[in-house]
Amino acid sequence: MKSARISEILNYRFRDEMLLTDAITHPSRRSAHSKTSAYERLEFLGDRVLGLVIAEILLRAFPDESEGDLARRHAALVRAETCAAVAQQWELHKLLDAASSEYVGGEITNIATLSDAAEAIIGAIYLDSDFETVRAMITRFWSPLLNEKLAPPSEPKTELQEWAQGRGLPLPEYREVSRTGPDHAPEFVIEVSVKGHAPAQGSGNSRRAAEKAAAKKLLSQL
Question: Which of 22, 116, 119, 191 is catalytic?
């Protein structure tokens, strides 16, 4: 069974198996009459739990770094690409219960889908156990990635904010231009502007990804 394989990989046995079932049932499987799903709620929770645990890990691992450097490291460790890489370690690209349209060649390749699935699993483990247990699990899978990212990575939104502040300008403003596509596979277009400069737009399958793309585009224009 899929749930048994995931439990084996995580080395965690769920007391409430329904939480794991909810965490691996993608919204593309939900009823057309349902506006939300347990999966999305678990993803919401898992995102926050992951962010807190990674922040604590970084504070302990890099006691002499500035808040800005820690923030860039944090962004790299919780971004969709990193979470998707962990999801693949958990074999969610093969085991996620999703509509056939989500699979390409028998596997899920969409980074946002995999990232969301990893966060849903984290949320499920947190509800099924406690903070100490989920922290230990996150530490086990994210620590190798932490060691690979010793140099604080750049982050377009942070770079743009620092660029504006360095010139005495107001903070960049982000505006949602459009959102298209189904709830489980949305496409956002975001516009970012800095006073005195032409705005730029970026797109992505999450608001965060679209904001990042827009910031990167505007930086290239400055």
Answer: 119
96 within 8 A of 26, measured Cβ to Cβ: yes
- 47 is known as an active-site residue: yes
Catalytic annotation, pick one of 47, 102, 116, 211: 47
The correct answer on CATH 3.30.450.40 for the domain covering 156-221 is no
CATH of 2-148, one of 3.30.70.870, 2.40.50.140, 3.20.20.80, 1.10.1520.10: 1.10.1520.10
Is 40 an annotated catalytic residue?
Answer: no
**Sheet bearing 187-193, strands edge to edge:** 173-180, 187-193, 200-204
Q: Encode pLDDT of 168-221 as tens digits.
A: 899 999 999 999 988 888 899 999 999 999 999 999 989 988 999 999 999 888
Using the 8-state DSSP alphabet, how is residue 130 labeled?
-
Domain boundaries, the chain: 2-148, 156-221
